[in-house]
Amino acid sequence: MAQPEQQPERYTGETLPAWSLPAAASAEIGIGVEWPERVTRDWALGGSTGAGVRVCILDSGVQPDHPLVGALEGAVALRKTEDGEIVVEDDTEGDLCGHGTACAGIVRSIAPDCRLFSVRVLGAGFKGSGSVLLEGLRWAIGQGFDVVNMSLSTTKKHFSGLLHELADSAYFRRTVLVASAHNMPVESYPWRFSSVISVGSHEEADPLTFFYNPSPPVEFFGRGVNVEVAWIGGARIRSSGNSFATPHMSAICTLILAKHPELTPFQLKSVLYLTASNVGGANE
Amino acid sequence: MNDQNLQAAVSAGVMSAESEHRALLQSIVEVARAIFSARAASIFLHDEEADELVFEAVAGEGSDSLVGTRFPSSTGVAGWVLVTRQPLIIDDLEQDPRHARETAESTGYVPKAMMTVPLLHDERALGVLNVLDRSKEIEFSLGQMELLGLFANQAAIALDLLQRARHARAVLTQSGGDAGVIARIASALEGLDEEQREPVLRLLGALDDVLRADVSF
Fold it and tell me: B71, B84, B88, B126: which to substitute to probe chain A, counting the most A Cβ within 10 Å?
C-alpha cells in the first residue's frame, strides 16, 4: 500500500528567529483568520465531512475492506527484528486483533471523507512493546498526519520522558495527538501530557456530544459506552471504554480541521473547549 | 545469603500463611459476586514464568473445582485484558471474537456476559478479576466500571502479598538451613507476648552488637 504523502504546505514559523519577534516581522505572523465573536458548533464543524484531513490510527492495524472502515490510503507495520532493530514495513496483514479496526470505523462514521492511514504497533494476541509504540509514534509524527488516534497507553515509566518529547514535538508540528486515558485510576502515558488531547468516556449515545473536563488530567469526554464498532472478519460488536471514546474525539477534531485547516493544536483545543456540550457554543 | 534473601527469609517467618492470603482473595471474589448479583466471580494470577493464567480464587460456578487450573496467558477476554491493561465489559460473549468458548467449555461453565478488569500493581499486571453473568437488572454504566476498578485495586494488593509470600518461601526453600533458622527465629519472635519478647530481643541485640563489632576478642 502507498506510503502517506508529505503534509501540504502550511505556515511553520521556520522563517522567524526561534526565540523572539523583531518589530519588522510582526506583520509576517498575521493569522488572517477571524474567529466569530461567539464560536459555535456550526462555525466549528457544521457541514464538515472531514474531507482531506489525514488521520492516522496508531493501533493494532486496520482491516482495510471492512464495510464500516472503507478505503485506507496507507498502512504500515512496525516490527522488531531479531537483532532488536525496529523496522517500518508495508502492512500486508491488516488487523490482528480488531481494536484498530474498531477505532478506524468510528472515525469513518463521523468524518466519512477523511483520509485514513494505519500504523500497526500492536501485534497478534494484542501484544506490543513500549519501544515499538514509541517508534510508531515517531514515524507518524514524521509523516505530518493532521490527527493521530492513540487508543492505547503504556504504564512503563521509563518510556514517559521520550513519549513526552514526542508529544511536544507533534504539538509544535501541528499534528494533533488524541490519546485515550486509562480506564482505571493508574498512571500511564501519553494521555497525561498537556500537549495531547486526552479522552475519557461519557455515557450518552450521541456521537457528537463531548464534554470539557474542568478537572484534568483528562481534558475531554467522548462517547464511550455501548458503542457498535467494526471488528475483524467483517464483524460488528458492542463495546465500551475510553478506547472507543478517543476516536470519537479524533473524528470531531477531523471535522473541525477540515473546515479550519489553519488551526494549531492549541487553537483546536480552544475550539473544542468553546464548543463542548457543557460550554457555551455547543448547540448553536 | 545476600541481603534480599535474608529479608525474604525473615518475611517468610513473619508473613501470614498462604492460606490467609487465599482467604482474602476468596472474600474479594465473593463480595464482587454478591455486589453484582453475578453467577460467578474469579481471580486469575499471571504466572510470568510459565506465561499462563492460573485460577487463584473462584466464587459461584466452578468454585469447587477450578482453583489451580491453568490456561495460556493470551486466552480469551482475560488474555486481552491482561495485555491491554484495560477493563472490558462484554454483554454478549457469543458474538465476541475475543471470547474463548472452548476454554470456557472446558471449565464446565460458559458465561453469556463478562466484566473483566486487570489487577495492576506498580508497573505490573499481576492478573485479572472476572465477574461472570451479572444480574440482568444491572445495566452497564461507568459507575459499574468504577466499582469494579475498586475491587481490582483490593485484589491487586492481595495478589501482590500472595506473590511476596510465595517468593519468600521459595527463597527459604532454596537457601537451605541458614535462612530456615532465621525464619524460625523471626516467626517464633512474632508469636511471643511482650513479656517473653523483651529478653529475647535483648539477647538478639547483644548478638547484633557482636556481629557488627569492628574489634573482637
Answer: B84
